Amino acid sequence: MKRLIALLLIAASAGTLAACNTVAGAGEDMSAGGHAITNSAEQAK
């Protein structure tokens, strides 16, 4: 029973870490897109 609980905790931890990386990467992509739009708007003035 202890092995099962330990395995579930490890699996949950790995899933959580993977999700954090995904969200951080998405945030960086959105930020880069925002900068590109801002730069384009400044050049079009």
Task: Please summarize what this structure is.
The chain has one helix at residues 2-44. The chain is mostly helical. The radius of gyration is 20 Å and the shape is rod-shaped.
Could you characterize what this model shows?
The chain is mostly helical. The chain has one helix and no strands. It has one helix at residues 2-44. The radius of gyration is 20 Å and the shape is rod-shaped. The mean pLDDT is 79.
Global morphology:
rod-shaped
Query: Major β-sheet, in short?
Result: none
Number of helices: 1
Judged by helices, strands and strand pairing, the structural class is mainly alpha
Compute the number of strand runs: 0
Ends: how far apart? 67 Å
Share of residues in helices: over 70%
The run of helices and strands is: H
Strand content: under 5%
Low-confidence segments, ≥5 residues, pLDDT <50? none
Mean pLDDT reading: 79
Radius of gyration: 20 Å
Q: What tags apply to this protein structure?
A:
rod-shaped, 45 residues, mainly alpha
Layout of secondary structure:
Blueprint: H1 2-44
